[in-house]
Design brief:
Strand order of the largest sheet: 28-29-31-30-32-33-34-35
Low-confidence stretches: 1-52
Number of helices: 11
Helix content: 10-25%
Shape: globular
Strand content: 35-45%
Structural class: alpha+beta
């Protein structure tokens, strides 16, 4: 398909975005920022219209008013994902009044991400599925939206590769950005300076084999590039824009020095920071000299978990915060002011979680989410000068915390002795004995994990009487190099064993009835559900998959980065296959239909840009031809998740009926 044919409707839809709210904006408008006590208000009691016990599925299907909100650099507006007429979109909310403008996603597309570019513009990445040789592929394109003119424009080249949203740097004032683009699918990526207002582009770094990833510092200078060969990586570097790049390092992926991640630079200095796992096998933050490729002093390490991110000050010379996940999101503040503010907020929460979403350019206003695994929570604006929290939006006020089920962290031992962390949610008001079980594996699978966080699907299943189990099987993110490597090449094998071993552990505890177990999942979790009942039919009564992978060969043709750890290596042969000679058909449900004897339910969005719709439709067709028991639901306007509450409700209702038929609670 010609690029012009793809991009024209994208820009056209954005240009026609409504300038005013939909007809009934009241439920989706956050309350104006009015003074509130420093302690967040307790969760409201259950509405009288909802009978005790079962909560209507519509309440769980309700989409958050604000999904992933980001405060503007000046603190006056919020940018957030939202639902517009049953479709995915973004909205810009004015905090003082609650008024907003909404921007729908183009048809047959997903919104991959969005962010502020100064105070007057936003950037939106659009993902879609396009014809690619004899199959399909995922394509991304970048859109800029001007708040003053309410007009959208495409940022990029008329001819470029599939990835068109790889932004390296955005000018804080929103004047320009740096973006790496392949001129064609056959070229190494260049780096362009793009003027956001006009779309004018200037190539500032030319393609350099074998560099595949470029890195910029906080001043917008491209400082380094990493190349990836089949068995090794290489690094080129320069101190300033006036210097030429020079090769400063090369190593095999299995070299201990290769565990390097998250390059951060001091401005006009060879010093900076990296995450390395050399000493302990867990990523920790170190000082680093890029000119000599010498690791310096340790800045911060956690004894059990990988560091996931770091915040630096404006010139990159000092660390402000380090982030990681244990059973929930954690931040360790180095900057004294923020350390004090975080401590004050945490002290007022009485056991609930707080998470800093983002803050203004001057750091004086901060957006927090406050809630728990059994409380959808609220978004609060914290003003440093005033010292108070103001509630600006709820996530889902139809799900009262006092009627939802508690979730707790547990740990069990897999058959090979590996310790596996997991989360167990038990139905409220029922004895923790001989319960029906739903195993709910996460997506990814690599670099992704579950944690103690609110999940409407988990709470729905628990409300219907099921114990819900979420294992962080081997390969899940955040647990260190050894845990990752235990999962390498183990899709469909040891990673699946971990799910079965968790079931056995719960049965031994007496918590669940091992004869009443189903497995449900989305994306990779959907694959794990389908493969679980195919591989071990004696363990499960049924399986349900939303947007699950059924054929790994086809999926890797669609997206070479699917199920690949970005943190450890680029070689999918080792990560997925577990070495040369392994046939992916032997772990692909589509290729193993003759082994399936258990009822399965499938659902998929036709506009999915991550796992294409064909993954489910081809599987459903093959099952029907083979005379197998399958239910298949297509959602024409959904992508890799649900945007329309009506569709989400339909999925939950169908899932409930399916489970009630094959594994009643």
């Amino acid at each position: 398909m010609a690029l012009s044919a793809v991009l024209a409707p994208v820009c056209a839809v954005f240009a026609q975005a409504p300038a005013s709210p939909p007809a009934s904006p009241a439920p989706a408008t956050p309350a104006p920022a009015t003074p509130a006590p420093a302690t967040p208000a307790p969760a409201s009691s259950a509405p009288a219209s909802i009978p005790p016990g079962e909560i209507p599925s519509a309440a769980f299907a309700k989409q958050p008013i604000l999904n992933g909100p980001l405060i503007s650099p000046d603190g006056l507006k919020l940018l957030a994902g939202t639902t517009i007429g049953g479709r995915e979109g973004v909205a810009i909310f004015t905090l003082a009044t609650g008024a907003y403008d909404s921007i729908p996603a183009p048809e047959k597309s997903d919104i991959a991400w969005y962010r502020w570019a100064g105070t007057g513009r936003i950037l939106i990445s659009i993902a879609s599925t396009v014809p690619y040789f004899d199959d399909e592929a995922r394509m991304t394109r970048l859109i800029a939206y001007d708040l003053a003119t309410q007009k959208a424009s495409f940022l990029g080249r008329k001819s470029q590769g599939l990835e068109g949203d790889d932004v390296l740097f955005v000018d804080p004032a929103g004047v320009y950005l740096l973006m790496q683009i392949q001129k064609t699918i056959y070229d190494w990526p260049s780096v362009y300076r793009v003027e956001i207002a006009t779309g004018e582009m200037h190539e500032i770094v030319k393609p350099t084999a074998p560099i595949w990833e470029w890195f910029a510092d906080s001043a917008g200078v491209v400082r380094a590039g990493m190349g990836f060969a089949e068995r090794s990586w290489s690094l080129i570097y320069r101190k300033s824009a006036d210097e030429k790049f020079r090769k400063v390092g090369k190593a095999r992926y299995d070299d201990e020095e290769a565990g390097m991640d998250l390059l951060r630079f001091n401005r006009e200095s060879d010093e900076g920071y990296i995450l390395s796992n050399k000493d302990t096998g867990r990523f920790a933050l170190y000082r680093y000299n890029f000119a000599t490729r010498t690791r310096g002093d340790l800045v911060f390490a956690d004894p059990k978990y990988d560091i996931s991110d770091v915040d630096l000050n404006d010139d990159g010379s000092a660390v402000e915060a380090v982030r990681y996940v244990d059973d929930q999101d954690r931040v360790v503040w180095f900057e004294p002011g923020m350390k004090k503010h975080q401590a004050e907020i945490d002290a007022a929460l009485k056991g609930r979680q707080s998470r800093l979403v983002n803050r203004t350019l001057d750091g004086k206003k901060m957006l927090f989410w406050i809630g728990s695994p059994s409380d959808p929570g609220y978004y609060y604006l914290y003003d440093i000068d005033e010292g108070v929290l103001r509630r600006v939006a709820y996530v889902n006020k139809d799900l009262p915390a006092d009627r939802l089920s508690p979730t707790r962290a547990v740990q069990y031992t897999a058959r090979d002795g590996l310790a596996i962390s997991a989360y167990l949610t038990l139905p409220r008001g029922k004895p923790a004995k001989d319960l029906p079980l739903i195993i709910l594996p996460h997506g990814g699978p690599y670099d992704v994990r579950d944690k103690l966080a609110f999940d409407p699907e988990v709470q729905f299943l628990a409300n219907r009487g099921y114990a819900v189990f979420q294992p962080n099987f081997r390969g899940s993110g955040g647990y260190g190099k050894e845990f990752y490597e235990k999962g390498e090449g183990q899709i469909g094998r040891a990673m699946q064993d971990d799910l079965d071993d968790g079931m056995d552990w719960l049965a031994k505890q007496g918590t669940i009835d091992p004869k009443r177990v189903c497995i449900v999942g989305s994306s990779y979790g959907g694959y794990a559900a389908l493969w679980g009942v195919t591989r071990n039919p004696e363990r499960y009564r049924c399986a349900a998959s939303f947007a699950g992978v059924t054929d790994f060969d086809r999926q890797l043709k669609y997206s070479l980065t699917y199920a690949i750890s970005k943190r450890y290596r680029k070689n999918w042969r080792d990560t997925i296959r577990g070495g040369p000679g392994f046939d992916l058909a032997t772990i692909s449900p589509l290729q193993q239909i003759d082994k399936l004897r258990i009822p399965v339910m499938l659902a998929h969005g036709k506009e999915d840009g991550t796992v294409p719709y064909k993954q489910s439709s081809l599987y459903a067709e093959a099952l029907k031809r083979a005379g197998r028991n399958v239910e298949f639901r297509t959602y024409d306007t959904e992508g890799h998740g649900f945007d329309d509450p009506a569709n989400m409700k339909d999925w939950l209702d169908r899932l409930e009926a399916f489970l009630d038929k094959h594994n009643p609670a």
